Amino acid sequence: MERPDLAAAIDTAAEALVGVLDSAVARQRLAVSPTQLRVLSLLTSRPETNVNGLAELLDVVPSSASRLCDRLEAIGLLRRVADPRDRREVRLVPTAAATAQLRSRRHEAVRAVLDRMPARGQQDLLRALQAFGQAAEAPDSSARTA
User: Fold this and answer.
1) What DSSP element (H or E) covers 62?
2) Which one is the CATH code of 3-132: 3.40.50.450, 1.10.4160.10, 2.60.40.10, 1.10.10.10?
């Protein structure tokens, strides 16, 4: 298989995976709104975020973002912690309960897709993902050829 075809296949698979993960987050059985779920998902992937940064990500005013955070904090899914580099800054951190629930839902969604694959395909995928991960961690070598 040529590299451009493989790269396109990986891109397509990555988009499918992101879609599966997004739909898993959207189907959360938590007693929170879709916007609150989006906030938790955003904060999980962006650990340095403060209220102003969250407001930018959501395209809302900071006071609205702060109220969203107040509600999440009240139900135990979010904490505000001082930034260790600048104690005047406050980071928004999903609690362990929020992170575990999001992760569990994503894993369930991925498992559902994997269950639709033949066992041989699952094994091949595992080996390919492990090799891809190792290659991604390896030092960049432009001189390397396939």
Assistant:
1) helix 62-74
2) 1.10.10.10
Q: What gap in Å lies between CA 58 and CA 66, rounded to an integer?
A: 12
At CB < 8 A and 24+ separation, what contacts does 77-85 make? Answer: 77/30, 77/32, 77/36, 77/40, 78/39, 78/40, 78/43, 83/48, 83/50
Nearest by Cα to 105 from 49, 42, 37: 37
On the question of pLDDT at 145 being above 60, the answer is no
Q: What is the pTM for the complete model shown?
A: 0.58
CB-CB contact of 55 with 62 (8 Å):
yes
Tens of pLDDT, residue by residue over 68-106, are: 999 999 989 999 999 888 888 899 999 998 888 778 877
